[in-house]
Design a protein that fits this description.
- It is a single chain.
- With 582 residues, this protein is α+β, with helices and mostly antiparallel strands.
- A 7-stranded antiparallel sheet has the order 2-21-20-16-15-8-7. Strands 6-5-4-10-9-3-22 form a 7-stranded antiparallel sheet, covered by helices on one side. Strands 1-19-18-17 form a 4-stranded mixed sheet.
- Helix 2 runs antiparallel to helix 3, helix 3 runs antiparallel to helix 5 and helix 13 crosses helix 15.
- 32% of the residues lie in helices and 19% in strands.
- A hairpin with a 2-residue loop joins strand 20 and strand 21.
- It has a single domain, classed as Glutamine Phosphoribosylpyrophosphate, subunit 1, domain 1.
- The radius of gyration is 22 Å and the shape is globular.
Length: 582
């Protein structure tokens, strides 16, 4: 009988293809993760690329604020990691002002243009467009918020001239850089997703139909000119003036190949605003965890996951398979709530406080324990009379980047940015990769006559999984982190926080331990993780839950204060780099 059961379990264990190109994971992990890049000092930078980290470090050396370093790093990432983030995308900044001891969120998420319609991503028959087709549509491109966020943060906190912070990026775009293997693989992924719809993208990234050689310097002169205009005229030039007119002219000219596209207006750009929001915070163990609120749902998912995990009577021991199964279940139950309830606050506020209510969490934890491995639905939090929304399919953003910076004065920037799919929409405008963030809205505005929470509306911001975080103890920041990874961002961060704050792991081990996730009833486990599993991963399979082994493309950027000194660690699954000042 035992042998029959073991055979049945083994048949449930599957292995994913080596290089998937899908809605779930189009931006894959590096094939051979290397050692963790670490640094420690009075000021520390962790970004997704060594050249971005170098640029940020140079700003700190020049006496710059963490925000100066942030602007320099993001501008460089737009050049050397355009598959993940850039000037044509958006993001969220969680900023700690050490002098005023205040924490705030800057929301630079993209918005739907004023001519948007709820059914823009439906076929004439009323069915959702195939995902790959939708990502390349002009109607998938949201009004970018990255430049507005960087400018507003710099105007308030920057110590160095704005133009100085853009110099490293201008130099790299104009004079070129040697592309990394990851850069070339990302171009190949974009080619497989479909890039022939934009001749400018083809000419820059696939000249002659092939990616640039890693032996040749890669240049983007159009992006260099855009950066030079921004350096000369400031961030508002992106939304008003000659550069804004160029953006409108180029994007609307593409409509000749997409007659259903309604186009952008000058008002779409000129009316874009960065929204300052109060952070979403909750206690956990002896810490206070803070993150960004709606329209992001990723932070709420992390807070719920950790609360579900640490209910009385359920110790979490990394050497016990039951602890990993419970983490996977908590991830799934938190996802069920956030993917149902969260949308742009313009459409109505979500019951976030009720979703984190201790009594509600206890009730959900008991239900989770009683139905282990099941596919949960959203809960009904206290004070809510019924389910007001239909349950849509979840959307994900995958072309994403995170950086964490602390300066010598203790100011912190935890910042996640995205263009959504790898290379976004694969449309270029003024040398910039344009996002496809509007595919993060529900494709269906309603289901069986019932509206969805995350409905596309003019001026609205789509729900996101991005979740930059800062952790406090006794009122002082002790940890800052975030990650790319689309729908799995909160899954990665929950595991890292458990490792750091509960298991007491070092920053190196916290970022390198294996990841896990849930996809429906399937338990998804990391294959070939930088560190070995603390348990036998095959032993996590059960007769009622299949197991899938897959590469994970996290890019965690972690800062931790240990014995009065900041330590940084970059996820070895990508090309992230940590640097520091003494």
């Amino acid at each position: 009988m035992i042998s029959i059961l073991l055979l049945a379990i083994s048949l449930w264990i599957e292995t994913a293809p080596a290089a998937p190109v899908s809605r779930d994971d189009p931006e894959q992990a590096d094939l051979n993760p290397t050692s963790v890049s670490t640094a420690a000092g009075s000021a520390v930078v962790v970004t997704a690329h060594p050249k971005a980290s170098e640029a940020a470090q140079s700003m700190l050396k020049a006496g710059g604020h963490a925000v100066d370093a942030l602007v320099a790093a993001q501008a460089v990432l737009a050049v050397v990691e355009p598959q993940s983030s850039g000037l044509g995308g958006g993001g969220f900044l969680l900023h700690w002002n050490a002098q005023q001891r205040s924490l705030e969120v800057l929301d630079g998420r993209e918005t739907a243009p004023e001519r948007s319609r709820p059914d823009d991503l439906l076929t004439p028959d009323g069915e959702p467009l195939p995902w790959r087709d939708a990502t390349r549509r002009l109607s998938a491109i949201g009004i970018p918020g990255t430049v507005a966020l960087l400018w507003e943060a710099h105007q308030q906190y920057g110590h160095l001239p704005w133009a100085q912070t853009l110099e490293p990026a201008i130099h790299l775009a104009r004079d070129g850089f040697k592309p990394s293997q990851r850069f070339i693989r990302s171009i190949q992924l974009a080619q497989r997703l479909g890039s022939a719809h934009n001749p400018a993208f083809q000419a820059l990234y696939l000249p002659g139909g092939e990616p640039a050689s890693k032996e040749q310097r890669f240049r983007n002169p159009h992006l260099a000119r855009t950066l030079q205009q921004l350096a000369r005229d400031g961030g508002p030039a992106f939304y008003r003036g000659a550069l804004a007119q160029q953006i409108l002219r180029e994007i609307n000219a593409l409509a000749k190949d997409e007659p259903d596209f309604q186009g952008w207006s000058a008002t779409d750009l000129s009316s874009y605003t960065v929204i300052r929001r109060a952070p979403l915070c909750a206690p956990w163990l002896t810490h206070q965890l803070c993150t960004v609120p709606a329209p992001s749902s990723g932070g709420l998912a992390v807070l719920q996951t950790l609360a579900l995990l640490t209910q009385p009577g359920h110790p979490l021991d990394p050497t016990r398979p039951s602890s990993w199964r419970r983490l996977a279940d908590a991830i799934a139950w938190a996802d069920a709530d956030r993917l149902y309830w969260i949308g742009d606050p313009l459409g109505g506020s979500a019951p976030v406080n009720a979703l984190l209510d201790p009594g509600y969490i206890r009730k959900r934890s008991l239900a989770m324990g009683a139905s282990r491995g099941s596919q949960p639905g959203p809960g009904l939090p206290p004070g809510v009379q019924g389910y007001p929304f239909a349950l849509p399919a979840s959307g994900q953003e995958q072309g994403t980047s995170h950086l964490s910076i602390v300066d010598s004065l203790g100011n912190l920037a935890s910042y996640t940015a995205s263009v959504e799919t790898v290379f976004g929409s694969r449309h270029l405008v003024a040398g910039m990769v344009m996002n496809n963030q509007l595919t993060d809205f529900s494709f269906r505005p309603s289901i069986a006559g019932q509206p969805v929470a995350n409905q596309r509306q003019p001026g609205h911001r789509p729900a996101s999984s991005m979740a930059p975080m800062i952790v406090f103890r006794n009122g002082d920041p002790v940890l800052a982190l975030g990650s790319p990874g689309g729908r799995r961002i909160p899954h990665y961060l929950s595991r890292v926080l458990v490792a750091s704050l509960l298991w007491g792991e070092s920053p190196i081990r916290a970022v390198a331990l294996p990841h896990l996730s849930r996809s429906g009833r399937t338990l998804v486990l990391e294959r070939d993780s930088p560190l070995q599993w603390p348990v036998a991963p095959n032993g996590l399979a059960s007769a009622h839950q299949p197991v899938l082994f897959q590469d994970f493309g996290s890019g965690i950027a972690l800062l931790q204060r240990i014995n009065g000194r900041w330590h940084g660690a970059a996820d070895p699954r990508r090309e992230g780099t940590a640097v520091a000042l003494p």
